[in-house]
Structure formats: C-alpha cells, structure tokens
From TrEMBL:
This is Transposase. It holds the Pfam family DUF4096. Residues 6-142 form the TniQ domain. Signal peptide: none annotated. It comes from the Bacteria. InterPro entries: IS402-like_dom, TniQ. Residues 349-423 form the Insertion element IS402-like domain.
Length: 498
C-alpha cells in the first residue's frame, strides 16, 4: 500500500478531481500517472466527481491517510443524493455535465471563476450546480472556456503545458492548458440581476449542503426545491409549447438582461447550457422566487402560465402539497380547496349578513324567470357561494334543492359585475367579517384558531375557495387579487404549520 509523502488537505467545498490533481502536482506527477500508481483503474474514464466507485475512493483515502467520509464528501454524490428523491437516476437535473456527456464535443468545460483560480483557490463543487452562474466573491460570471482559444476549462489539465508534456509544472489553474494565456475574467454582471442570481444560488447551496432552504415562508429540502426549479426553468427556457419565453420579456430590461435570447441546441435544458445562457434563466427564476411562492405564483398567473405548464404529469417528482397548492392557484378549473382548514359547508347567509347586502343587490331584470318563478337576489348570491364551495358539476348543481338554476345565477352575477353591485356587496361582506374579528386581507391561522363564529369561518371559506376565485377572476372583480393572495398566504401558512 502506497502512502503519499506530500498530502495537501482538500480545501473547503473542493471537488474531488481538483484535489487529486493537486495531489499529483505535489508528487511531480500527472494526475493519470498518480491514479495508475495508486491502482485506481479507470478512474478518469467517466467524470470521477460523479462516478468514482467506493473502491477508488477507499484507495485515495488510504494513500492520503484521510477518512473515507472526508474523501467521499469531495464528490458530487452527496449533492446528487439530496437533489433527487430517486436513487436510480443517473443524472439528476440541475447538475452540470462535462464534455461529451453534454453532447457538445470539446466545448463543455468545467465552470469556474477565473478570478478565484488566480488567487490560487481550488475548483469548487458548487460550480457544478446548474444554478451557480456567478461568483459571489468577485461578482463576475463563471466561464467554462478559454476566451482566447476556446479550449474547455479542465481540472485535470490545470498543471502542465501541452508543448512541454514531459515536464511537470506546479498547480496553475489560472492558465489555459492549450494556449497558456491567463484565463480572462468572467464578464461583469448587471447588479440588479446579480442580486437575484446570488439569492437563488444561496438557496440552492443551502439546500444541497444543509439539506434545507428557506423559500419565502416555507422551508424546502433540496429534492422539493429541484421539483420546483426544474419545471420553472423549463418554462423560462420556452420548453412549454403554450408559454413562449417572450412572456417574461418585460423583466429583462429592469434586471439588466439583454432582450430575449433563445437558448440554442436541440435540448436546451438548464444543465446543458453554458453559464452565460444559464445566467439569464437563473436571474429570472431568482426574481420570480424573491418572496418564495407568494411572489412566484401570482406572477405566473398574471402571465398566463397554467398548472399544466408548470407541473405537467411527466415532470420531475414534486411533493404532493406543492402540486395541490400550484393546482389550486394556477389551474383554470380548480378542483377543490385542499389546503386551508376553513369549513367547506357554506349553506346560507345569516339574516344580519343579508340585511347589509340587501340594498346593494337588485334583481336583474333580464333573468327573473327560473323554473317558472322569479328568484330573490338572496337565493342567487347564496347559490353562487354554495356552488363554488360545494364543487358540484353543472348537472348536480341543477338538482340542489332551493338553489336557482345555473343560468339564472350566471345572468345575475354578470349583471352585478357590470354595474359594480357585486364588488360593493363583496366589500360589505368583507367589512362585516372584519367587524367580527376575521380580516380577510390578512387571515392568519392564529386568527382562525382564536375561534371566530362558525358562520364567519364558513363565509370566508366560501369566499376563498379556488372555485369562487376563478369565477371572480372571470367576472373581473376588483376583489379577486386580494382574495386570491389571502387564499395563497393562508394555504402556505397551513402547509408550514402542518
Ligand atoms: Zn471568484
Ligand atoms: Zn486558451
């Protein structure tokens, strides 16, 4: 068994190949010679950072007198395990692939910050995350090719010049292995975009290192975060047929990004793109997620991104609660309210409530007949709230006793919406709820737990039901946005406390 005489320890967050290369240069050897001497067969054959076998890692640990766990922590395996809930996946999303694995021969180098390399730092594991596109230390973009000659940056060639292969030179990662120029620094990035890029990078770093990241009000683990980020980047890259990337164009100028640049390539998924292209997607995603789901979902909704665009069936596994939440917020026809504990059994308004509404809602002259008799506005309004909470189909709806037919309801609602009566009535209803201790602008789980009367909770449950909200959106109600935000916040709170 060989034990190396000179054994520099791994740097913080250093990647395995970088450390092995530094070990080799210390012994005045090429990296491939070192691994041969240590009997690590086929070590370099297939991206060792991702695919090194336990035997190879054990060999390295013996030769350097390190603990096996310490060597394993240099590989991408722990990150990969956190990123995916499925152990069988060879290539989890959001990990940058190198060289031919990316399908682009000789152009896919190791992402790196040349400024960090000039300071003699090692290659970092976090540079292999697809979300890492800028250096937080230097504020510049990562690069993966030499700008002089186009050669891909290579960790294992960070030590010798091709023309002088016989010589072993010290660890010089800041020079291009082909043209021997110093690697030019990465481009300076626009400040507004950098803020959001670093925000998202920190989130992802925290998730893969500690296993958990705070996204707005929620704390997500790395697999959940991948389940959200992976489809989101697909939307931003224009991989969803119904969402052209141009719907995000108005964000580019304020973020300092160039106008809509389409990603090239047959499969422009994030992990296959060069850092400059990834930068734009990460900046947009960072901006969308600046307050977590509270900022993401309304923004996607405004831009017409639907549930099926964000989370199609075949996508990477997403936690069930997130699917439910996104479904209720983005689907055109939400199924039901599943995320708040408000009661779903609204039946009738109290007489006190109706006394407040009665002067505001008049009978619509065009639709007085239903089943041969005129329907009172109270029946219609109650029917509206009942239908949207009960989640009945149109057929079932017409058989609920004591409720006007659906046509009557729709005619009334449309007319009330046109004349502003609907918004006035909703304002009155909400004020009345606020007088009884439940402000719908800021409903909190603690307020709900402090036991407001049942009818108050039932009314709020009816108003915040996804079906009510989707009808209010179609009617163009001014209350729609605030009620929708209230429903989202309440849903998130309940997820968080569950
Ligand atoms: Zn740097
Ligand atoms: Zn070069």
């Amino acid at each position: 068994m060989i034990v190396l005489r000179l054994r520099p320890g791994p740097a913080k967050d250093e990647v395995l190949t970088s450390w092995v290369t530094r070990l080799a240069t210390e012994q005045m050897m090429r990296p491939s010679r070192l691994t041969n001497c240590l009997g690590l067969r086929g070590f370099w054959r297939q991206d060792p950072d991702l695919n090194a076998t336990p035997e190879q890692l054990a060999g390295l640990a013996q030769a350097t007198l390190c603990r096996l766990g310490q060597v394993e922590a240099l590989t991408l395996a722990p990150i990969k395990r956190r990123l995916t809930a499925r152990p069988d996946v060879a290539r989890p999303p959001l990990l940058v692939l190198l060289g031919r694995h990316r399908g682009t021969r000789n152009v896919a180098g190791h992402p790196a910050c040349p400024a960090c390399l000039r300071e003699g730092r090692a290659y970092l594991r976090s540079w292999r995350l697809a979300t890492t596109v800028a250096c937080p230390r230097h504020g510049t973009m990562l690069v993966e090719n030499c700008r002089h000659c186009g050669a891909p940056i290579s960790v294992t060639r960070a030590h010798f010049q091709k023309a002088q292969c016989a010589q072993t030179l010290p660890w010089t990662p800041e020079r291009c292995w082909r043209c021997w120029e110093r690697l030019p620094l990465g481009g300076v990035v626009p400040t507004p975009a950098l803020t959001h890029v670093l925000g998202l990078q920190c989130l992802m770093d925290a998730a893969v290192h500690s296993g958990e990241a705070r996204v707005g009000d929620l704390s997500l683990n790395a697999a959940d975060l991948t389940g959200l980020l992976h489809p989101l980047t697909h939307v931003l890259l224009g991989l969803r047929p119904k969402v052209p990337p141009s719907v995000f164009d108005d964000l580019r100028a304020p973020l300092g990004l160039p106008p809509g640049v389409r990603a090239a390539g047959a499969r422009p998924v994030l992990e296959l793109l060069p850092p400059a292209d990834r930068f734009q997607v990460v900046a947009l995603a960072g901006w969308l997620l600046r307050d977590g789901l509270v900022s993401l979902l309304p923004e996607l909704r405004v831009r017409g991104v639907r549930f099926t665009d964000l989370l199609p069936e075949s996508t990477w596994p997403t936690p069930a609660w997130l699917r439910d939440l996104v479904h209720d917020q983005l689907a055109r026809r939400p199924r039901q309210r599943r995320l708040t504990s408000l009661p779903t059994d609204f039946q009738r308004l109290t007489d006190e409530q109706w006394d407040r509404l009665a002067p505001l809602l008049t009978r619509a002259p065009g639709a007085v007949r239903s089943g041969g008799r005129a329907r009172a506005p109270r029946d219609v309004f109650e029917g509206f709230l009942r239908r949207t909470t009960a989640g009945t189909t149109e057929d079932q709806w017409n058989h609920i006793p004591g409720v006007p037919r659906i046509k009557t309801t729709i005619t009334h609602l449309k007319r009330w919406a046109r004349t502003g009566q609907l918004d006035d009535a909703l304002s009155e209803l909400l004020n009345h709820l606020a007088e009884h201790g439940l402000s719908p602008d800021e409903p909190t789980t603690s307020a709900l737990n402090s036991d407001p009367p049942l009818w108050v909770r039932q009314t709020l449950g009816a108003l915040l039901a996804p079906r009510t909200l989707s009808v209010l959106a179609r009617l163009g109600s001014t209350h729609h946005a605030s009620l929708w935000n209230a429903a989202l916040r309440l849903g998130l709170q309940e997820v968080q406390t569950a």
